[in-house]
Write a structure and sequence with these properties.
alpha/beta
Length: 388
């Protein structure tokens, strides 16, 4: 295996530590939080990001993202907040794209001011962002595809703009996963993931990850040692196991999501479908240039009048499950206005285009036809709400 290996090979083999005692093919779980310090190159301790199981996962994620180094945190928001607070100081400014995950919005508006860090929002295009850069700006933060409307930001253009002004760039790459998109190669400095989603893939793990350069990794880890939010050995072992099937899962999810998006697009009881893999999408061309797959996430607006009617539609599903989160092997549906974006004020949700009837699908690995059949039977029954 080498740096040119394919994604599926990297998923299985990158970062692996072979057991010299048992010759097993899996990395052993080293549960000790008390580790010998004599005759060692470094003091190993779980809060220091340097135990074997932590290092294995970080190395695998770095290999998949094509970065020099990686770090694993207790959650996606821990990865984002630790990185930002490590790199942005009091008196500096962060520019966020407008179309943003609700938790990140809360961090920007509630937490950054407490540290003397200012923030502002701009549309995810270089013209708007260039106009919003201030003398004190330190970082541009983007999310692509975005949550929940799957808008696609031109990563290369943003990276070039940032470098022209001497700024750092950071991206939430959760929706794409490292299988579909590698921002580092487009010039982005820091790639963050909510690993609970596609990387974990089975709706049973909570962790986050960062992929970046050795230099930035060291700065972020020093801050992380103080702020905490690390991951224990047993969880790391489960993460490593999950990552081995990441390519297989995501490729099937890509295929299923494309089929569902095309089905919903032509359905008479659906008003709008948001998916970058549709040729009619305004972001199709840029997504085709920077993504190797269009992802397993899509959103749509059924022809309904209210959130209550949308909830009634959800209750009709038999295979698709209502749940928060995303990226698991099962297909789930949620209402962004009540879940991921519920923390945004109603006027902010409206500006962001997040309607009460908007439904977000995280498409799983089930048989494609079973998912279409489930959508069809629910939408047929939903007609009584749309027309009554």
């Amino acid at each position: 295996m080498n740096d040119q290996s394919g994604k599926a090979t990297l998923c299985v083999h990158a970062g692996k530590e072979k057991s010299m005692n048992t010759e097993g093919v899996n990395t052993p779980i080293f549960t000790s939080s008390a580790i010998d310090f004599l005759d060692q190159d470094e003091i190993r301790y779980p809060r220091n990001f340097n135990t074997i199981n932590q290092k294995v996962v970080a190395a695998k994620i770095a290999a998949l993202e094509g970065s020099e180094a990686g770090l694993v945190f207790g959650s996606g928001m821990a990865a984002i907040s630790n990185s930002m607070l490590a790199l942005v100081k009091s008196g500096e400014h962060v520019l966020f794209q407008t179309d943003l995950y609700g938790g990140t919005y809360q961090m920007a508006t509630k937490m950054l001011p407490q540290f003397g860090i200012s923030y502002s929002f701009a549309e995810a295009n270089t013209e708007a962002m260039a106009a919003a850069i201030r003398p004190e700006t330190k970082m541009i933060y983007i999310e692509t595809p975005s949550n929940p409307l799957l808008r696609v930001t031109d990563m290369k253009a943003v990276a070039e703009l940032a470098k022209h002004h001497g700024l750092l760039t950071m991206i939430d790459n959760t929706f794409a996963s490292p299988i579909n998109q590698n921002p580092i190669k487009f010039g982005i400095d820091i790639v963050a993931h909510s690993g609970s989603k596609y990387m974990g893939g089975h709706s049973d793990l909570l962790f986050g990850a960062v992929a970046t350069s050795h230099e930035l990794r060291n700065i972020i880890s020093e801050s992380g040692k103080i702020l905490g939010s690390n991951v224990n050995a047993t969880t790391c072992s489960l993460i490593e196991r999950s990552l081995k099937t990441l390519s297989l899962r995501v490729n099937q999810q890509n295929k299923n999501a494309q089929a569902l998006a095309e089905y919903l697009q032509q359905h008479p009881k659906v008003q709008q479908v948001y998916y970058p893999g549709l040729k009619e999408s305004p972001d199709y061309q840029i997504a085709s240039r920077q993504m190797s797959g269009f992802g397993g996430m899509l959103s749509f607006e059924p022809a309904l009048r209210s959130g209550a009617e949308a909830e009634a539609l959800i209750r009709r599903f038999k295979v698709i499950a209502p749940a928060v989160s995303l990226g698991g092997v099962e297909t789930i549906v949620n209402m962004p206005a009540r879940t991921s974006h519920s923390l945004l004020p109603p006027d902010e949700r409206k500006k962001a285009g997040v309607k009460d009837v908007l439904l977000r699908l995280s498409v799983g690995i089930e048989d494609e036809q079973d998912l279409i059949t489930d959508l069809e039977q629910a939408l047929q029954l939903a007609g009584i709400y749309a027309t009554s």
